[in-house]
Specification:
The complex is a heterodimer. Chain A is an alpha/beta fold. Chain A folds into 3 domains: 12-45 and 224-284 and 416-478, FAD/NAD(P)-binding domain, CATH 3.50.50.60; 109-195, no CATH class; 287-408, no CATH class. Chain A is 42% helix and 22% strand. Chain A contains 18 helices and 19 strands. In chain A, strands 1, 2, 10, 11, 12, 13 and 19 form a 7-stranded mixed beta sheet that branches. In chain A, helix 6 (148-155) crosses helix 8 (182-195). Chain A is globular, with a radius of gyration of 23 Å. The termini of chain A are far apart. In chain A, 48% of the residues are buried. By secondary structure, chain B is mainly α. Chain B has a single domain (3-80), classed as Non-ribosomal Peptide Synthetase Peptidyl Carrier Protein, Chain A (Orthogonal Bundle). Chain B has helices at residues 3-17, 32-36, 40-54, 69-80. The longest helix of chain B is centred in the N-terminal third of the chain and has 15 residues, at 3-17. The radius of gyration of chain B is 11 Å and the shape is globular. The termini of chain B are close together. The interface between A and B is small, with 14 and 9 residues.
Chain lengths: 479, 81
């Protein structure tokens, strides 16, 4: 008989968190710390959701989404996790660009970008300052319909090269395009520009491991291999979940599963009002990704290439081309031995944005062929910068949208959650079903490590408030 | 709680949220956001701490009431009396 993963759990919880992405874990930690009885259920064999990693023989370890995040992570980790986790966040050294329009390295902060825009792109300082100030002034609640493309064109008319410089890294950070609302660009771009790009020293495995320890210290029950198949709802109110075939009672449920998966698969559309469903069905998922993981032989190395390297062979910037199966743009995340102090290993993860539909319909043989082509094309692209890299590689494999879908259960392998409209649908879920919340990558601004962590915080506040109120009701009833 | 006690309670919370800022010389009528460099997550923390420490509920529609110390006191006094 297989091991009972749910052995030792309590008969009822204040909160059950479905999924252990960074939003779910952060929400669980805050509520656990407040003394709530919390259970986290993760279907995979490790925690972290898309903040994940995998190991291969001969000591290889690959990070999926560590790439780089804004400085705000330090404050969020300090406040909602602990000092130890926050203290391991360090700035990356540099970000490099190489494409037919420009080629250089930057620290990716406002000061350096101002210099680059003035000196290299010949933009007047006042125009650059006005752009930064406007980008920083966007609020998530005032969408005036301006797209990122229109905003960039207004700020820097006719300068596709400048648009590329400003947009390409953001498109890789959250899957957004020039057609998405300007406010999503402004908020995320300004978060990065405030102090540059940071990384977790020690790797994703260390970070998630430390988070797990903190959760347990705060009394949170955590179970892996625990697949929630259903959220239980009775007369418009959450009563628990069904996990591995077994019902578990809960006063509230936070779904850190994909938004669409939460509504359609976990809860069921029959529990929602029709006008809500109409809005929910219109929520567009963000694009998916392909990645190629390359591990060097022990003892081999490569010269500094920047920590993040945005490359493209396309002569102009265009959001559609960024996801096309005929890949022209790649981002290389370069991991040097100091990523994991004590290690001597070098690895590179190449990421490209991708469309689910381009990969989902391929018959198995063609899928394998396309995957092999993706790997070969990636090595060729890398050889432009590191001519002898092929002979140094010890391990190479690829992930496609199907891979992301399989390990995270996200609908259509969406690696960045949903487009902007997903945020209001996500926030409206508790109005539909009492005691149910969604937390996770939505609305572009709530995606990425920092965005999801902060969304987890916002939801934990609402759950705590709900539990306090329902305690008050219980107490009154008992009197 | 008296108005003065509530003021101290808020100062204590702010000192935890912005440990590097000088909360002792806070001006009551200048926005907290500007004086202490607070962002929207910081305000959320204030709301969570008020609930935890004093069982006071601040719905999100009332967050603008927390803009300055004076507006905080006006808003919280009836709730924390």
């Amino acid at each position: 008989m297989p091991k009972d993963q749910l052995q030792g759990i309590q008969s009822e919880y204040d909160v059950i968190v479905i999924g252990s992405g960074l939003a779910g874990l952060t929400c669980a930690n805050i509520l656990g710390r407040m003394g709530r009885r919390v259970l986290v259920l993760e279907h995979h064999y490790q925690l972290g959701g898309m903040a994940t990693w995998f190991r291969r023989k001969r000591g290889h370890i690959f990070d999926i989404s560590l790439h780089g995040f804004p400085f705000g992570m330090v404050k969020s980790c300090k406040r909602y996790w602990n000092d130890d986790i926050a203290s391991r966040i360090e700035p990356i050294r540099g970000i490099r660009f190489d494409n037919p329009q420009f080629s250089f390295e930057t620290t990716y902060d406002r000061k350096d970008f101002t210099r680059i825009l003035v000196e290299r792109f010949q933009q007047p300082l006042e125009r650059v300052e006005a752009f930064f100030d406007k980008a920083r002034s966007f609020n998530f609640y005032d969408d005036d319909g301006t797209t990122t493309g229109q905003f960039l064109e207004r700020c820097f008319p006719g300068r596709n090269d400048v648009h590329r410089l400003l947009m390409e890294p953001i498109a890789y950070a959250n899957g957004s395009t020039l057609d998405d609302p300007a406010l999503t660009f402004g908020i995320v771009f300004s978060n990065f520009m405030s102090k540059g790009v940071y990384i977790f020293k020690g790797g994703t495995d260390l970070m998630v491991g430390l988070m797990k320890k903190e959760l347990i210290r705060n009394g949170v029950d955590v179970r892996i291999y625990s697949d929630v198949e259903r959220v239980l709802v009775e007369s418009g109110r959450v009563t628990g979940v069904v996990c591995n075939g077994r019902p578990i009672r809960a006063r509230s449920v936070v779904s850190n599963a994909n938004l669409r998966g939460t509504i359609q698969r976990l809860v069921g559309e029959e529990h929602f009002a029709s006008d809500f469903l109409e809005k929910a069905r219109k929520v567009r998922l963000s694009s998916s990704s392909c990645q190629v993981y390359m591990g060097l032989k022990p003892g081999e190395s490569f010269d500094y290439l920047g920590d993040l390297f945005f490359t493209s062979t396309l002569d102009h910037f265009d959001s559609v081309a960024l996801c096309a199966k005929d890949v022209t743009s790649r981002t290389f995340s370069c991991y040097y031995p100091d990523t994991r102090p004590g290690s001597d290993r070098y690895s590179i993860v190449s990421s490209t944005n991708a469309n689910w539909d381009d990969w989902a319909s391929l018959p198995p043989e063609e899928y394998e062929r396309e995957k092999a082509k993706l790997i070969e094309d990636t090595i060729c692209a890398l050889e432009r910068y590191l001519p002898d890299i092929r002979g140094k590689l010890d391990w190479i494999e690829a992930a496609t949208p199907g891979t992301f879908s399989r390990y995270t259960k996200t609908v259509h392998g969406a690696t960045f959650g949903t487009k902007f409209e997903g945020l209001s649908v996500s926030k409206a879920i508790p109005e539909q079903i009492a005691g149910l919340w969604h937390a996770g990558s939505v609305g572009i601004i709530m995606s990425g490590w920092l965005g999801t962590i902060n969304y987890g915080v916002i939801v934990s506040n609402e759950v705590d408030s709900y539990l306090s109120r329902s305690n008050a009701v219980r107490a009154t009833e008992e009197v | 709680m008296t108005r003065q006690e509530i003021r101290q309670a808020i100062i204590d919370i702010l000192a935890d949220i912005a440990p590097d800022e000088d909360t002792a010389s806070l001006k009551d009528d200048v926005s907290l956001r500007d004086q202490l460099g607070l962002d929207s997550m910081d305000f959320l923390d204030i709301v969570m701490e008020l609930r935890k420490r004093y069982n006071v509920e601040v719905p999100s529609s009332d967050y603008p009431q927390l803009a300055t110390m004076t507006s905080c006191l006006d808003y919280l006094s009836p709730k924390m009396a």
